[in-house]
Amino acid sequence: MLLALAGGLNLWALDLNGYANDYYAAAVRSMTQSWHAFLYGSFDAAGLQTVDKPPLALWVQALSARVFGFNSWALLVPQALMGVATVGLTYDLARSRFGRSAGFVAGLTLALTPITVAISRHNNPDALLVLCLVGAVWALDRGLRKEGSLKWLVLSGVFVGLGFETKMAAALLVVPGLALAWFWVAPKGRVTAVKQLLVGGAAMAAVSLAWPMLMWLTPASDRPYISGTDDNSIWSLILGYNGLGRLFGQSGGPGGATGGGGGGVFGGEAGPARLLNAALGGQAGWLIGFALVAGLGLLLTSRLRRDDARTGYLIAVGGAFAVTAVAFSRAQGIFHPYYVSALAPFTALLVGAGWSLMRNRAWAPLLLAGGIATELVVIANSAADLNWLTGVLLVGGAVAAAAIVFAPKLRTAAAAAAIGLLLLAPASWAVQTVGHATSSTFPAGGPNGSSMGMGGGPGGGGGGRGGFGGGQPPAGMTPPSGNSQGGTNGGGFAPGAGGSSSGSAGSSGTNSGGPGGGGGMFGGDTSALTEAVAHAKANGGGTVVVSSQSGASQSIIQSGADVAAIGGFSGRETVVTTEWLADAVADGRVRWIITSTSGGMGQDGRTGATDAMAIAAEVGKATSVDGLYDLQGTADAIRAAGA
């Protein structure tokens, strides 16, 4: 029943989301056109530049598209099934330590978490990342139950490695809890535990570094440029853009794109209350209070005794929860609300474990108080549509607590009713997620219009599919030129960069902006890019290059056009050197270039493709298409201009 529920939520009317994130969908189409692009994670079939993440999640989608054809279902069904599998593992993990009822509570909590539903219906890498994280904890716990079996620890390391190949450093947040749990419980002794951890760590490193080593060892001229870097180094991507930069701040983070305020797109202000704010609370914050009290209860009742069956579970799950929660609360760099999907399963696992304490007269009232407190905060911050539930929570919680304390024969029924009460709010948002398309770039669960932290109240709903609807963008952000404010089918400031098939472009149904080529928030005019591609085909062929990969997405999705980008996702993440551009022109990988650098979310100090575009306009031959230059034979001139 639990898996059927998860499958229904994840699969029902799945094609509402179209191709979901156009950026990744375009990369998948490119990978179906070229095994070289597939292997190196190239955004474009020409193999000019990678996406800004490792390709494992895209490999799954690309293989599905090769078998079933390039369409919405082929891309999204694997994601939905990953979500179902994660719920199954969550159930089994809690069941193994606390019984079937606890497993059901944990699995149900995860299945009804709004952001879990949203990412399971989307093509961002997060569905696979979350599956790998839960798989790692599940395998380690199984190893502890098998008296310290090394093979399960190795499997846990493999899961972390696969998570790293999905979203790099985000997968490492579970490692401290895993390592500490194994060392603390140490069924075969601490010395043996250390040796086993080294073996498990080696397995993790081998899997994690397989694709990065391929990129490192392949000559730069034989592989795509690494997006998100300014030195074409995979290690810069790992340590910077997808690593420490996320925690400690990076160009283009909240301070850059939102005027220092860290608006909804970037998860709001960093700090202890971040997980319950308007951007994040409605996605995965509902039961954090219950989870914290449950963790405290298990800590005090188990006293972390090595022979207590709950200890390893608590350290591994609680450690993953704590490290992830602190990292997300502290993150100063680029941070989007859907990232909390990685916290959701560990919240659910603590809730499931807390079920074992719900019939305890001392702990049940505290658990209910913790859960109700955070739900009230979330409702106040981001779910005005559920204001009516405030009184129900307070009265129902008090009645359930009283029944547990004073009516022993009713404890089980009262505890079950209390859990059901706490799941009403997230369930409401989870179900509403199924009824509309999510944002292309920033998926979110809840009512239509809840994307980017707009919440479920007035001003947050209405309007376009995944956009801001009739509401206003976060402080410090302005709609890009050409996007209408308002509208009913993709209106407003649409976060769906590139205007997916689900209608996330401007109200006219086309992408507007500059001649940089299609892309809603991050791109330009699809019609201009189409004209440029037609001109290139009629005059010798070759790849048409734009600034923003997001701006090139629609042309690749719609027709498999020979289009690429050199500035990264929005046109400002990647800085290619003059020498690289000259070499690409000399060997024929680049001939045509549209020099517009329009698109993006305000000026944040990043230069991206700006300098390369300026040189191209200086030395290239203008064509009859506005903004399109022919760079054939200009390699030496490009080098000279950049000297």
Characterize the structure shown.
- It contains 26 helices and five strands.
- A hairpin with a 5-residue loop joins strand 4 (621-622) and strand 5 (628-630).
- Helix 5 runs parallel beside helix 18 (344-354) and helix 8 runs antiparallel to helix 17.
- It has a domain at 2-8 and 19-230 and 237-432.
- The termini are far apart.
- It has 643 residues and is an all-alpha fold.
- The chain has helices spanning 2-11, 22-33, 35-40, 56-68, 72-98, 100-111, 114-120, 126-145, 150-167, 175-185, 190-208, 210-217, 234-248, 254-257, 281-284, 288-302, 309-330, 344-354, 363-382, 389-406, 411-434, 526-538, 549-559, 578-586, 610-619, 635-642; strands at residues 544-546, 563-565, 592-594, 621-622, 628-630.
- The longest helix has 27 residues, at 72-98.
- Strands 2-1-3-5-4 form a five-stranded mixed beta sheet, sandwiched between helices.
- Helices cover 54% and strands 2% of the residues.
Question: Which terms summarize this structure?
Answer:
2% strand; 26 helices; five-stranded mixed β-sheet; 54% helix; mainly alpha; elongated; 643 residues; single chain
Contiguous low-pLDDT stretches (5 residues minimum) are: 254-264, 457-524, 598-602
Q: Which percent band covers the strand fraction? A: under 5%
| Spatial strand order of the main sheet | 2-1-3-5-4
> Pairing-aware structural class of the strands and helices?
mainly alpha
Number of helices: 26
| Percent range of helical residues | 40-55%
DSSP E strands, number: 5
Distance between the termini: 66 Å
Radius of gyration: 25 Å
Q: Could you report the average pLDDT, rounded to the nearest whole number? A: 86
